[in-house]
């Protein structure tokens, strides 16, 4: 098991890349969520067309589910409270909680989540997810974007399919613990965003991870 500050062990460039991925991914994930809500899909080689309508669609879906948006003035306090509770709940688990402007990133490393080549959640990961679900249910006014990552073993297509399945497995577990499905979008990134070299002994397990982005609804 690794300590709660395991991100500090990576090269600065790797951490920066992982964090900047949040910013670039959120708009694309919002577009995907809007398409899913409407039963649509993008062609495999198409770039998502990001518009204000996509953002509005996702916000409207939460409002219809009884989850009203936050006032802008409440966002910092909302994130501060969750950040503190998540860090407290996950201390010593090997997971990390990072603040990124107006969102939180929870990172579950591979050795705690899935065996190599599998999308079956490891039993020791259940308690971490239970703790996170309790906090998410306490603070329901957020979008949850669950990103699956793989370690690069096998073909690109296999890595993509496995990362999709892992993100879906975490989504299903959180939903089984009461997290509203309307809040959640899952997104597989295959092996395209490593945060450690696979040549390192611990590299594949670190790259084989789940990230949950928590973004307040405003």
What does this structure look like?
The protein has 218 residues and is an alpha+beta fold. Helix content is 45%, strand content 14%. It contains 7 helices and 5 strands. The protein is globular. The protein starts with 11 loop residues before the first helix and ends with a strand.
What's the topology here?
Layout (H helix, E strand, L loop, with lengths): L11 H26 L14 H13 L10 H16 L5 E5 L2 E6 L1 H4 L12 H13 L3 E7 L7 H21 L7 E5 L14 H5 L2 E7 L2
Parallel strand pairs: 3-4
Antiparallel strand pairs: 1-2, 2-5, 3-5
Shape: globular
User: Roughly what is the average pLDDT, rounded to an integer?
Assistant: 78
Secondary structure category = alpha+beta
Proportion of strand residues: 5-15%
Strand order of the largest sheet: 1-2-5-3-4
Largest sheet: 5 strands, mixed
| Topology as a string of helices (H) and strands (E) | HHHEEHHEHEHE
CA-based gyration radius: 16 Å
What proportion of the residues is helical, as a percent range? 40-55%
In short:
With 218 residues, the protein is of the alpha+beta class. It is built from seven helices and five strands, in the order αααββααβαβαβ.
What are its keywords?
disordered N terminus, 5-stranded mixed β-sheet, globular, alpha+beta, 218 residues
